[in-house]
Amino acid sequence: MKRILKFFLISTIALFYSCSPSSRVQRLLMKHPELVKTDTLVLKDTIPIQGIAADTVLYLERISAPVLLSRDRLEVEVWKQHDTLFVKGKCKADTVYRTYRIPVTRIKWVKPDRIDLLLSN
Question: How far is Cα 49 from Cα 94, in angstroms, rounded to an integer?
Fold first, then answer.
């Protein structure tokens, strides 16, 4: 009796395991590898970087000509009017673009011919 129960249990598990949709697709793809198509998914990500600006005023007696300092995106301008020293700085806005390439495997859909449909019925 135990042997029959064990056999029945193992055959039921095997039957349900072999009938699962994932195993059926896996067997189909093993028999027909031309149905698998490797494709690349391209994602473009944009990161905006906002600009920064700052102003300040200093009182100094000895400055003669306006000075412009610039490096990459940062610009600082210093000038004197009467007894006041003006410092004006700003950072230009920028945008960073990143591109991701992700390989994806997908199944190619093939429509059956009308003759195959008639023969299968």
Answer: 5
- Tell me the whole-structure pTM to 2 decimals: 0.40
pLDDT at 121: 47
Give the C-alpha separation, 29 to 17, whole Å: 17
- Dihedral angle, C-alpha 113, 115, 120, 121, nearest 10 °: 120
Separation between Cα atoms, residue 73 and residue 88, nearest integer Å:
14
30 vs 60: CA distance, rounded Å: 82
- Where the chain has pLDDT below 50, the residues are 117, 121
